């Protein structure tokens, strides 16, 4: 085992019996046939369960919706990549030449997948309880500082709930323009209301993203008028 891998074990608080599992967990698919994709699949399920279980215990009175939003905020790519950086996983990754040249060791998707793969490797190496312990230790700060679940609702949901509370019809979203090459499309979306002269437009690299931005703008406009 390399010195970098040994340092990673110290940061994880877990020593592997099978060093090959950790090596595989840190190997991106660009580096060869034996890589961390299967371990990432396993680790993804493990992280989701451990965090769901922790939230169930921490928020004893919370319903399914808020619990789901909290879990989604904790296991999203950005959060996992941040935890991977705290572990300094990028120093231990094995990448193919193309990913090395493009700075793949800094990419959120690669770091998040490697983080999950490492936890999948811990599970295979030591069983569920050691994997749970490592996972909870890595998430301990995030679990201790959970946000209000309502603050995690996306803009379209918040707009819908606000309108329903006012007894008003739901908004309509329509794509009014698509532009750019196939690999880099841009969508312009309009959000409007049937019972008022209120419309907003937003542009994004995905239809969903543009809809969320348009909904956010429309909600702020309506709340400002209502106030």
From TrEMBL:
Subcellular location: Cytoplasm
Entry's Gene Ontology cellular component terms: cytoplasm
Keyword rRNA processing on entry: yes
EC number: 3.1.26.3
Catalytic activity reported: Endonucleolytic cleavage to 5'-phosphomonoester
Transmembrane segments: none
KW Cytoplasm (keyword) present: yes
UniProt cofactor(s): Mg(2+)
Active-site positions on this chain: 44, 116
Subunit architecture: Homodimer.
Family, per entry: Belongs to the ribonuclease III family.
Protein's job: Digests double-stranded RNA. Involved in the processing of primary rRNA transcript to yield the immediate precursors to the large and small rRNAs (23S and 16S). Processes some mRNAs, and tRNAs when they are encoded in the rRNA operon. Processes pre-crRNA and tracrRNA of type II CRISPR loci if present in the organism.
Name of the protein in question: Ribonuclease 3
Organism field: Solimonas terrae
